[in-house]
Automatic annotation (TrEMBL):
Its cofactor is heme. The keyword Heme applies. InterPro entries: Cyt_P450, Cyt_P450_B, Cyt_P450_CS, Cyt_P450_sf. The keyword Metal-binding applies. Keywords: Heme, Iron, Metal-binding, Monooxygenase, Oxidoreductase. It comes from Hoeflea poritis. SUPFAM superfamilies: Cytochrome P450. Belongs to the cytochrome P450 family. This is Cytochrome P450.
Length: 402
């Protein structure tokens, strides 16, 4: 048995869903991978940490998404949170075939192909405005840069009025807290904010102005094909998944570059490696650390028998540092080859915004490289937020010279 005590930080991290400040999860992942790549926890959920087993689950139709309300069936104490969970059940992210394909198609046009071309100048324009270009200076990077770009891009996709942009960021924080502590344990203020969010999106999809402008961003199919509750829930989902994850990528990428400063210097002389650097940042500090599936029939995985209906937690952050797949996995290496990480998931639910997120990070990194000669992070300012599903920084103060 894995020696795990309720007072252990790792136990807290897995069970309570929050990591104590400064807790380094990667050495424990390594231990788990070596001995129990598929591990049954004392509280009943299965944890999968090897790259091979994570890919196997994601590519296998015997493991399906389990939507929040369905998962917590009957256990919601508060009526409001039960209703919110039902709204979240309509998300593309939590849907299963056959509805999944229809919803995914309705979103694809807004974030793939020609939409990326349309969004490129928006991304360049925002990066030009938010990256400081004075001779030298200092800033708190998360709030002044990393949080600004994704919200601007997502607002453009959602055809969101500019004056309401800040609301996406605030709602997105509430959703994250809901997934951290469970919707039922959210504060009254957070529940009220999420109810307001749902009302806002329901009104938005019914508004003739939004219906007209959304045709330009390719979201009109969503409003035309689905009822207003499903369309509104999915817009809220897009605001969350398109924003929060990318903020974390941008912050962690800069931190990794400061910790492996030779990589920053290498990128200065080899800008063609910028995309590699972004891919490596996704692998090295995966913004989405864990996702879940449910076994729809009894199934064997890495020698373990998983009964039907049990919950499987896929540790993407562990898989992306699996030494059996990535040589020297803890090193941030912008020249790494064959870097097929699972930070965007794989299979049916593979991230729809993968190319968009990479484009945002690439454009930001190129702008930083053009404007800053050197930079350093103030170590005392580094603060990771304590959520164990999404990994990202709350704070990162940097000083630069141009
Ligand atoms: C660094 C940034 C991002 C990361 C790490 C990330 C990660 C992920 C992961 C791991 C999944 C799969 C979840 C699962 O299988 O359960 C996913 C799904 C999804 N992502 Fe992203 N994502 C990012 C950015 C974005 C952006 C910018 C958008 C759109 C604006 C987006 C839209 C979506 C959508 C719509 C899905 C659901 C796809 C489906 O269920 O078929 N993501 N993302």
């Amino acid at each position: 048995m894995l020696d795990l005590h309720p007072e252990d930080e790792f136990f807290q991290y897995l069970k309570a869903g929050s990591a104590p400040p400064g807790f380094d999860v990667y050495p424990v992942f390594r231990k788990l991978q070596g001995r129990y790549p598929v591990w049954k926890s004392p509280w009943g959920d299965w944890y999968v940490s090897s790259y091979e087993a994570v890919c196997h689950v994601l590519m296998n139709r015997d493991f399906l998404q389990s939507p929040p309300a369905e998962r917590g069936a009957g256990s919601f104490v508060h009526e409001q949170t039960r209703d919110l969970a039902r709204d979240f059940d309509k998300w593309l992210l939590f849907s299963n075939p056959p509805q999944h394909a229809e919803l995914r198609r309705a979103f694809s046009r807004a974030v793939k192909g020609r939409s990326l071309k349309r969004l490129k100048p928006v991304i360049e324009d925002v990066c030009g405005k938010i990256v400081p270009d004075s001779d030298f200076g200092s800033c708190e990077f998360v709030d002044s840069v990393a949080r600004v770009l994704p919200v601007a891009v997502v607002s453009r996709i959602l055809c969101f009025p500019e004056e309401d942009q800040q609301r996406i960021s605030d709602w997105s924080d509430c959703i994250r807290r809901g997934f951290d502590v469970g919707l039922d344990s959210l504060s009254h203020e957070d529940v009220a904010a999420l109810e307001e969010m749902m009302t806002y999106f329901r009104d938005l999809v019914k508004s003739p102005t939004w219906r007209r402008v959304s045709a330009q961003s390719g979201l009109d199919e969503l409003a035309e094909t689905f009822d207003s509750k499903t369309a509104a829930s999915n817009l809220a989902m897009l605001a969350f998944v398109g924003h929060e994850t990318t903020v974390h990528l941008l912050g962690s990428m800069l931190l990794s570059l400061s910790e492996y400063y030779d990589a920053w210097q290498q990128l200065k002389s080899h800008p063609e490696l910028v995309k590699n650097a972004v891919i490596e940042a996704l692998r090295h500090q995966s913004p989405v650390q864990k996702i879940c599936r449910t076994a729809v029939r009894p199934i064997e995985l890495a020698g373990m028998r998983i009964p039907e209906g049990e919950m499987i937690v896929l540790l993407l952050g562990a898989a992306n540092r699996d030494p059996a797949r990535f040589p020297n996995p803890d090193r941030f290496d912008v020249t790494r080859r064959d870097n097929r990480h699972v930070a965007f998931g794989i299979g049916l639910h593979r991230c729809l915004g993968d190319n968009l997120a990479v484009l945002e990070a690439e454009t930001l990194l190129s702008t930083l490289l053009q404007r800053w000669k050197s930079f350093k992070v103030k170590p005392s300012s580094i603060s990771w937020h304590d959520n164990s599903s999404l990994r990202g920084l709350d704070r990162l103060c940097v000083e630069w010279t141009a």
